[in-house]
Amino acid sequence: MRRWLIDSITAFAIAIPTVSAGQTGAISGSVAQAASGAPLAGAAVVLAGTGRGALVDTLGRFTITDLRAQSHRVEVRRQGYEPQSRLVVVRAGETTFVSFALALSTQVLGAVRTEATAADRELFLTRPSLGTTSLNSRSVTAVPRLGEADIIRVIQLLPGVGARNDFSTGFNVHGGEADQNLILIDGYPIYNPFHLGGLFSTFMDATVRDVTLMTGAFPARYGGRLSSVLDVRSAAEGRPGLHGSAELSLLGSTAMLSAPISDRGSWLVAARRTYADLVVGAFSDEVLPYHFYDLHGHAAYRLPGDWWIALTGYGGNDVLDADLSEVDDDSVAATAAEGNLFFRWGNSVVGATLSKTITGGPGADSVVLVQRASGSAFTTDVDVGEGSASVRHTVVDRRLGGDLTVHTAAHEFATGYELSAYRLATEDGSPQAGIRGTYRRQRASAFALFADDLWRPSPGSRWLVEGGARLEGLSSRDGLSLAPRLSVKRFLRDDFSVSIAAGRFTQWTHTLSREDQPIRFFDVYALADSATPVATAWHFMAGVERWMGSTRQLRIDAFMKRYDGIQEFWLGENPFVNGDEFTPTTGASYGIDVLFRQYESPDRRLSGWITYNYAVASRKQDGERFAPAHDRRHNLNLVSTLRLGRYVIGARLGIASGTPYTEIISQYVRRRYDPINNRWENPGRPPNDVDYIGGTRNGARYPLTQRLDLSASREYRHGRATVRPYVSIVNAYNAHNVLVYQLDYGLVPPVRRTLSQFPFLPSAGVSVAF
Amino acid sequence: MRSEAAVRWLVLAGVVPGLLACELGETFVPPGQSFLLVHAVLHPVAFPVTGLPFLLERTWDGVRYVWQTGPPYSFGEPIVTGGGSPEIRATVEVTTPSGEVLRAAEPNATNPESCCAGMYFVPIAGSALVAGGTYELRIQTSSGEVLTARATMPAMPTVMVQPAGVFDRSRDTLRISWAPVAHAAAYELVISNPYRDVTAFTESSTVHLTGALRNTGAEGFPNAFLPGFEQRVSVYAVDSNYYDYYRSSNGGTGRGLVNRITGGLGVFGAKAPVLHRVVQVVAPFTRPVEGTYRYFGTVEDSIRTLITGLTLYIESPAAKTGVTEALSGAYRARPRALAPLFFDTAGAFLGRKWGDSLELAFLSQHRITDTMEVFKARVIGDTIVGRYRQRLGTWRFLKN
């Protein structure tokens, strides 16, 4: 059965039809925002007087075919932008290319004054999905940062999202674990996109056009994770000529170059590297043996026949290469004898998308064909003492996917497939001693077929219904899994809707991580197999959304999730035995997210959002019920950006209740028997061989946390160049937020030391763009 | 040597929090809880005179004082001087596979606080242990708490005692293999090391040890093999209790230990020796200061000298200018009759060298925790001239 299905969808992939140009002519082109150059998805392109037209796709492109060879007036409209029109000559057998750049506008439509329409407004009007939020790079840049602007740090401030602590860019959605988020870069999966234990994400702000976060009950085209989808899209250059930007911060520097490729596409390359190691080495005898770097490239090009190809490449690595004999101060025992510690972890993504938008055709306004191929890898290499102890882990995810979307007046029907080939390898041991510990090789293929239909019964209908299903299978597990999805929206008024949604979700990549640890350097993955089941979750959501004008949004979503077969890494697993790595866990979570957001517009200087999340999560394992370590009950965030001429002032205030932790209730010394001398060895002075005993799992909670971050920047213009120096302060009033407690029961009375999260941290930098 | 330990090391080292986190201070907290903790290992070649030493103590709770920075560690008082809180006057019994109940003795039963507190000696001769036999431990404290555990003795093969050999760590690989042992959950490799023994578990019955191996269980990952040292490489077959206890731990999250003790925690395990091999670690002399030295002085002084000969190695060269080089080597002392009581007649030293100055620490039983004497000196041509910390006079050693 499975083979038949795989064969069928492979055939489907190969059989995606190509469409001939025909004997008439065609118009193809791009539509972008004039200010940012970002593609303007959803804009309507209309040929005056013909009734023909097309919608601009997510890459900002459109094509209208089968046009009579004559002059046509092409009009481009999108709510919130100045419309444009242009006379375009179509010649027989040729495609005429044209590009538009729309400026923001203030329109008067009847009695309703509308301002710049945000992507969320589009979502509100056109999609019934709940919990979906989008951000563009402009919103991200204005949020106070630690050194580098970071998309995922801003994502942590969105409704339904929480983070364990300041040191983590990992995020938890609606009570789910951090490994339950599907993170995509231009539609391709990326594993563990974090640097330095989660302190920074791998996404460079300059390369990001926008991000979309779906916190639950997402459509059937997405699968493989239980909690959320974060879709990060690369920027595309819509302006003529070469452009670039550079940012220097205390942490590192980022440089980006971008340009259009005639009028047929654009390219972008960017690189980032931290340089604290170089600075320390240049100005002192000290050694800071750590750096990370990222490389990102993206290009889109229109091929003959109006096919578009988009390519994305990303590579990044963290490197900690410490010769401890250099790092440490010398002491009684010569540190020259000390060894090396080498950590390297990083990910790489390469992907290509071939797409075509066909306007018109029998029974359809337009048809979008997309074929996608990608490879994503994440590798870790830990080596202690030049091979005396090592851990190596690799996950490679190669995917082939495609979808076909048919737009009609009432429907947007999409169907597609996804074929994945996974290769995971984990081994540890001591090459220098010829000892092998964990040795696990997993190879599996997975497939998914999905169908999804967005239905608006009539143009004026107040109902929006999206239903679909995803059929999935994994070669290392028997059986197929069906994941239905449904969301329904009812507009009570033009600006007010209620929605409900539900869906089933599956996840077969599990992480061997200790969720209770406050800081995770990276995840090590394992696939579901005969010993490890696929985790599943049901999402149920209900929400109301109200727009006040087109730039103020109030959204309240309630959610409930039930988990089954979540796999938690069992700390006592035997490295010589495969299949005992996980402990099955069930769980549930429920809560409410509230979002009030005010979007930027020409006459509104203040923008930002306020979110309040209430979430309760619980897990059950071996009959024991406990709150997971990310169970943050209350989370309030205020994010604001004030633009005053050339100044931009940013502020973020976060107040959140504490997360649970396991209280240490005792300690002990682990002793080793010396059989040669029939005695017990000297354990050395504490903390040597001192271990900790925990009380009730996550039975205690850290105190409330609070943090105010501020930033300010000013824009200077010199010719083509824009220079923007900024200052940023994290934790402006130095709130003492607890990261972790360290207890010492060897003292009388016992003592608790508190390690803090971010203290008061000022930073500064400058960005230059041309 | 498990690599997870390396990850844990980095996390505990606080690389990330160390960059940005700060300590918010200390507060006193209420006492914690105290649990019975036992460390007990069945081993067949224990001295039948004393029996097998089992340790019984209480975990730290902030009520009982624990000696963390007190006097040096004493093998005769392992709990009190090793950061523990002994549990005395308990009844410790081991039931053998044949049903015989062996009752452990406290060395000083009338006043157990005065000596060896928390030590209980089980009167079982190594030869009496039964391969594949299950032993039951039962402990009852004076307050009535009961702790129980069971352990199965692995098979006890004839121990291979391989002849001592020279191991040139710059080029040699020590290949060791043994026959599989019945009832063994894993094998424990132990390499004696001055910092702490190198230990690793393996399921294989062969290991290949290179001279570049590092001791990842010791701070700073020093070399496992040190030129000038006589080091023992041993392999033990261990039962699942022993293996599970020593490969797992709770760590900072307080969870993760595989504990097979009912009524408390710790280990009641079994290990059987499989192989012992002693290697004399050497390395080529490549630097001027390296080589063998003999005492050089008057006949009168030669009677008083502590050390009569040295073999000196640059154990690790300096990683950068301005820091010291690490030294290691072997020494010969005067015959026992002429040497101080505490001083081994032959052994090893560790040291450091900067410029033409050097400092050597002569170790007792090859352990860095037990330094017998320190010698500070200068290198003048082929001569080392210096003074001992605890002995008057200037002493010279001439390179051979």
Quickly list its features.
heterodimer, A: 770 residues, mainly beta, 22-stranded antiparallel barrel, five-stranded mixed sheet, 52 strands, globular, disordered N terminus, B: 400 residues, Lipocalin, 2 domains, nine-stranded mixed sheet, 4 helices
List the helices and strands and how they pair.
The complex is a heterodimer of chains A (770) and B (400).
Chain A: H1 2-14, E1 25-33, E2 44-47, E3 53-55, E4 61-67, E5 71-77, E6 84-89, E7 95-102, E8 107-109, E9 112-114, H2 119-126, E10 132-136, H3 137-141, H4 151-155, E11 161-162, E12 172-173, E13 181-185, E14 188-189, E15 194-195, E16 200-201, E17 208-214, E18 228-234, E19 243-249, E20 252-261, E21 265-274, H5 276-283, E22 290-303, E23 307-323, H6 324-327, E24 340-359, E25 366-384, E26 389-407, E27 411-430, E28 435-455, E29 463-474, E30 480-493, E31 496-507, E32 509-511, E33 525-527, E34 535-548, E35 552-569, E36 582-598, E37 606-621, E38 624-626, E39 634-644, E40 647-656, E41 660-661, E42 664-669, E43 673-674, E44 679-680, E45 690-694, E46 700-701, E47 705-714, E48 716-718, E49 721-730, E50 738-744, E51 751-756, E52 761-769
Parallel strand pairs in A: 1-7, 13-18
Antiparallel strand pairs in A: 1-4, 2-3, 2-5, 5-6, 8-9, 10-17, 11-12, 13-14, 15-16, 17-18, 19-20, 19-52, 20-21, 21-22, 22-23, 23-24, 24-25, 25-26, 26-27, 27-28, 28-29, 29-30, 30-31, 31-34, 32-33, 34-35, 35-36, 36-37, 37-38, 37-39, 39-40, 40-47, 41-46, 42-45, 43-44, 47-49, 48-49, 49-52, 50-51
Chain B: H1 3-13, H2 15-20, E1 23-28, E2 36-42, E3 52-58, E4 85-86, E5 91-95, E6 101-103, E7 119-122, E8 134-140, E9 146-152, E10 160-168, E11 173-177, E12 186-191, E13 198-202, E14 206-210, E15 230-238, H3 240-247, E16 265-282, E17 291-296, H4 299-304, E18 307-316, E19 325-333, E20 346-354, E21 357-364, E22 367-380, E23 383-388, E24 395-399
Parallel strand pairs in B: 2-16, 10-16
Antiparallel strand pairs in B: 2-3, 3-4, 3-7, 5-6, 5-8, 8-9, 11-14, 12-13, 12-15, 15-16, 17-18, 17-24, 18-19, 19-20, 20-21, 21-22, 22-23, 23-24
